[in-house]
From TrEMBL:
SUPFAM superfamilies: WD40 repeat-like. InterPro entries: DYNC2I1, WD40_repeat_dom_sf. GO terms for molecular function: dynein heavy chain binding; dynein light chain binding. GO terms for biological process: intraciliary transport. It comes from the Eukaryota. Transmembrane segments: none annotated. This is WDR60 protein. GO terms for cellular component: cilium; cytoplasmic dynein complex. It comes from Corythaixoides concolor (Grey go-away-bird).
Length: 112
């Protein structure tokens, strides 16, 4: 609820990493690991911002932020086929009106 993210290992109750205020205090609505690239995850906050984290590139801050204009995004889901190396990764965004928007991620964050 405060925008902090914690990365845990299954064998410990303490986080390996913790990023406080990663969304400028906005609650996190959804967080999902990339299906095609293990070090990348996506965060959706309550202000309809999507943050892309690539832990191999920068483990302190997100590598990109995209604001979805005009309408609140209520959830997201990642689309991709982990067994294929074509680098296609998409994000399905569900908006408050019920509309679904699909966007594709740049290959540099999708390639294995």
């Amino acid at each position: 609820s405060d925008g902090s993210i914690r990365l845990h290992q299954m064998t410990s109750e303490y986080p390996l990493m913790q990023w406080n205020d990663s969304t400028n205090g906005q609650p996190i609505i959804a967080l999902q690991w990339a299906l095609t690239r293990p070090a990348v995850f996506f965060v959706l906050d309550a202000s309809s911002n999507i943050y892309i984290w690539d832990l191999l590139e920068n483990d302190l801050l997100p590598v990109a932020k995209q604001t979805i204009p005009s309408e609140n995004v209520v959830t997201m889901a990642l689309l991709g086929e982990p067994e294929k190396t074509n680098g296609l990764l998409g994000i399905a965004l569900a908006k408050e009106s019920g509309q679904i928007d699909v966007q594709y991620v740049k290959k540099k964050w999708a390639l294995p």
